[in-house]
Amino acid sequence: MAERDVLLRAQSVWKKYCRDLKTSLMYGVADVVRELSASSNEVLDLRPHEFWSLQDISFELHRGETLGLVGANGAGKSTLLKVLNGVVKPTRGRVEINGTMQALIELGGAFSPVLSGRENIFVSAAILGFNKREITPYIDEIIEFAELEEFIEAPVATYSTGMRVRLGFSIAMFIKPDILILDEVLSVGDYAFQTKSLERVAEIREKAGGVIFVSHNVNQLRRLCSKCLLLEHGKAVLYGDAAEVIEEYMLRQVAMTADSKRKRSVGLDDDEAVRLLSWGIEQSGAGTKGTLAMGPFQVWYTIQINEKQSALSLDVSLFNEAMQPIVDFMQPCPELSGVTGVYTISIDYPHIPLSARQYFPYISVVDQNSLRKIVKFLDPVGFSIGGKLTGRGMLAPDVTVNIEPGDYAGVSPRSEEALSR
Amino acid sequence: MTIVTQTVHSAESVLRRPGQLASLMVRDLWSARELGWRLFLRDFNAQYRQTLLGFVWAFLPPLMTTGMFLFLNRANVLKSDTLPVSMPLYIFVGMLYWQLFLDCLQNPLKVVESARNLITKVDFPRESLVIAALGQSLVTFAVRLLLLIVFCAFGHFIPPIWAIPLAIAAAVPAMLFGLCLGLLAVPPGLLFKDLGQAMTLGTMFLLVVTPVGYFVNAASPGHWYYRLNPLLYLINLPRDLFFGITTPYAPLVGFLFLGSLALLITGWVIFRISVPIIFERLGA
How far apart are CA A129 and CA B32, in angstroms? Predict the structure, then answer.
């Protein structure tokens, strides 16, 4: 990649923080004095109560790229954004920015509640470095994009949270920076606004700008990002192709919850009427660790019924990463009604052309009379289907496309009907 | 060819490259104009929107303090010399300059504190906050000058025509003195809330010990003590000029002006360096 295509370069960025406020303020005074005495601030030792929020982070953002920042809460994403944005100084290392950068981090913070939306547009634009003359041609577009035509003269105090964020977002969107930083902002606003905003982000990227995008929404990350950086406890764990990094992030997320969930759901409460003892996933008669090939597979559960139940049903689902049910059905189980003891339930899935993503089996044992879920269990680890992700589709069947030369035989009845509507 | 601006964030102290720092400061000050103006307009418009009396609040402080000193003078608590002009007008003019100094002293900390949410999230020239604070002080001063015109008409006093621009220009040292102290007070004021409280109390005391509403002459007991107070000169010079009274303070005020200017630049550097470090630790 040519040097001129590098929009942003972070070189070994470190940042430390202090856990105790009073100590932190004392360190702050010491840091100010050190800065004023022009001595080096590149101190790598931690003073008491300090910890590393970022450790040795390096990456580059190129023209036309969208870089996703992923990681659990507290991984250091927001700190990294603040360092990139120049709001806080790195403890060590260097960030080089070629061009203009705009962060879309709670822009509504600058709004004065007693002033109207229109007045606040001018203030926010000025904060982003644009004067009245420069922003005036875009005013109507901004108001329209924010969908606030009717409310723009009303004081911002009367706006809902969504309206404020929409307004803040719309202002920054029209400013067209070289680098746009998005921190979870897209999670606010309704579906239509989110879609519109994502399109706008794509537009900025296409105009050879760069976007840095922070989100926990895996679908949005997949859709927008070409590269991702996975942070964990302030360290860069993985940096590279988006699909690969997102998969690793998902695996780490589910592994984290798996530990706590497994403890909660298996073998802890002996007084329970029905208890889940064990579960597993098998393919071709063998147990599997997490990745399946496309083809039939089996999910099994061992349960223990301690008290007889009059009528039981099973609620079986298979969820994708966005927690959308791919499979979902309810089945009465006379075999389990009126009995006690240990039973194994196996669910045999036929060949479903699932796309190469992560899936999570779910089961619950339901009392048919009260519809109460006696035991419910979502496998937090789940499994992934191996192979290459080819698109956004949930299924990846072997579809064949045939193209042949042919004659035009007039408008078909089907297209005629569609056109006449 | 498009010119691409390069920005670098690093751990290095900005003072290691003084030339670069100076050019950055000038650049930021220049680019802070529009934002400073907008923030000033925002605060100015918002300030009186939720009040019944509106702009009357801008007039009240100098009127109140003038009234207070008039009352004390009438009661002969504070002795005054005979004046060539009416006493209320003389005190009121002094109070205008005093309030300008006070606003310049107090507004920077107020404005920076109110922008906490913004400072911790967005990178923008922080100088704009100081510009907004200064704008507020100056506009309130200008609005109060309108009241002065009314008072002059009422008291049948017409200042010498050359004195008006001179009296306004001579307010600059008092303004700068307040601003440099106000700017220096921002970092400790952000760290310790005590300073804000102490400032309110301290300025009340300062008003009483500054001979603005009363007079001190060579015969006054402890008069040398008053002479240590720079505000005596900073306020009396423009006031004397306004009333066309011969004033001995010009050289001293010139010296104070230069001192304030040097202190202002120092305060500015400290402000730039310390505000991000402090807010990074205080959070939003």
Answer: 8
Helix, strand, or coil (residue A114) = coil
- B250-282 vs B18-47: helix axis angle to the nearest 10? 90
Tokens representing A376 are 């419910």
DSSP state letter for A273? S
| Whether the Cβ atoms of residue B9 and residue A89 lie closer than 8 Å to each other | yes
Nearest residue of chain A to residue B48 (CA atoms) = A114
User: Do the strands A341-349 and A297-305 form a parallel or antiparallel pair, or are they unpaired?
Assistant: antiparallel
Which of B123, B184, B192, B282 should one mutate to test binding to chain A, selecting the residue with the greatest count of A CBs within 10 A? B123
**Strand A358-367 to strand A373-378: parallel, antiparallel, or no bridges (unpaired)?**
antiparallel
Instruction: Please count the CA atoms within 13 angstroms of the CA of B30 that sit on its side-chain side.
Output: 6
- Which tens digits make up the pLDDT trace of B130-183? 999 999 899 889 988 888 888 888 878 888 888 888 889 999 999 999 999 999
The alpha carbon of residue B117 is apart from the nearest alpha carbon of chain A, in Å, by: 6
What are residue B165's phi and psi, to 5 degrees? -60, -35
Q: What is the pLDDT of residue B1?
A: 41
Distance of CA A331 to the CA centre of its chain: 34
Out of A21, A38, A129, closest to residue B13 by CB: A38
Q: How far is B56 from chain A (nearest CA, A)?
A: 19
State how far residue B187 is from chain A, nearest Cα, in angstroms. Answer: 9
Q: How far from the centroid of its chain's Cα atoms is residue B232's Cα?
A: 15
Q: Which of B7, B49, B195 to mutate to test the interface with A (most CBs of A within 10 A)?
A: B7
pTM: predicted TM-score of the whole model, two decimal places = 0.73
CB B233 within 8 A of CB B252: yes
Question: Residue-wise over A248-282: b if at least 16 C-beta within 10 A, else e?
Answer: bbbebbbeeeeeebeeebeeeeeeebbbbeebebb
List C-alpha distances in Å: B179 to B102, B106, B107: 9, 8, 9
Residues pairing with A231 in the sheet: A236
Residue A113 DSSP symbol? T
